[in-house]
Specification:
- GO terms for molecular function: DNA-binding transcription factor activity; sequence-specific DNA binding.
- Pfam families: HTH_1, LysR_substrate.
- This protein is α/β, with parallel strands linked by helices.
- Helix 5 crosses helix 10.
- It has helices at 3-16, 19-26, 30-44, 60-88, 103-116, 133-136, 168-174, 223-231, 241-250, 279-294, 296-299; strands spanning 49-51, 56-58, 92-98, 120-126, 140-143, 153-167, 188-191, 199-203, 209-213, 219-220, 236-240, 253-255, 261-262, 264-271.
- It has three domains: 3-87, Arc Repressor Mutant, subunit A (Orthogonal Bundle); 92-157 and 266-299, D-Maltodextrin-Binding Protein, domain 2 (3-Layer(aba) Sandwich); 161-264, Periplasmic binding protein-like II (D-Maltodextrin-Binding Protein, domain 2, 3-Layer(aba) Sandwich).
- Strands 3, 4, 5, 6, 7, 10, 11, 12 and 14 form a nine-stranded mixed β-sheet that branches. It has a three-stranded antiparallel β-sheet with strand order 9-8-13, with no helix packed on it.
Length: 303
Amino acid sequence: MDRLTSLEVFSRVVETGGFSAAARKLNMSTTMVSNHVQALEDRLGVRLLNRTTRKVSLTEIGRAYYDRATQILADLEQADDIASELQSVPRGTLRIHIATHMVPFVAPVVAQLLSSYPELKVDLRMGEADVDLIEEGYDVALRMTAPPDSSLIVRSLATWRHVLCCSHDYLERHGRVQKLDELAAHNCARHLNYPFGDEWRFFDRKGAPASVRISGRFVTNSGEALRAAALEGAAVCLMAGFLAQGDLEAGHLVRLLPEYRPVEMSMNAVYPHRHHLSAKVRTFIDMLVHHSAEQQKLINPYS
């Protein structure tokens, strides 16, 4: 029999003064109550209760065991209450991993989270390499592409597109790009995590797919390094819209071939568990979804 259930049954017998009263309290048969107490006594090899036809009473050993049992059951109830509270109100430490170039997008959400929930701590780590969420103890990661691990839960936050761009200086030195296939002759900087490798994919004005095989002297897994290369006039870049938008509006970068829309991507929140999602993770993801909706034009300048 389940030891914890037997412990609770024994305690109810003591508190109610009999097997029948305990059975009514626990909504089980008197025989089952008796069996649970007997199982405890057999396991311990001692008598916990003195039984008569009229009542039951604790033995000396039973009294010591009951005192400890009630403390154990109280501690367990308190643990349940703590778990329930943690599930309903964001508290504890939320460990997040994001790509470095996503910091400007995520930082306002983290600040709002900390301001709204004073019992919550946030441990925010950045890096370009994928991390093992379970092995490294992260609650959630934000990624620009879906993870290869199918056991992880993926929540889409927003759609986004790359922007094809370069600096004015690059155009002055290498000439304007007039057609998509001309990119093959240019120095194109590529992000290592671009899902199609060195084949840049687009849709034309009619919605037909188009692509070009590019080459170049710079490959990186850093969005910021890609942006720096573009600003310095070192290469043509296909970079996330939220990285390029400010520089495009300021005139530091020029959008190329606007008639071609890069393929749509998804910004994702990735976490290990679907069931019993903690309040801290659930609240953070919900706030990200709301923030993503507000920032959609920045995330996806083609929307």
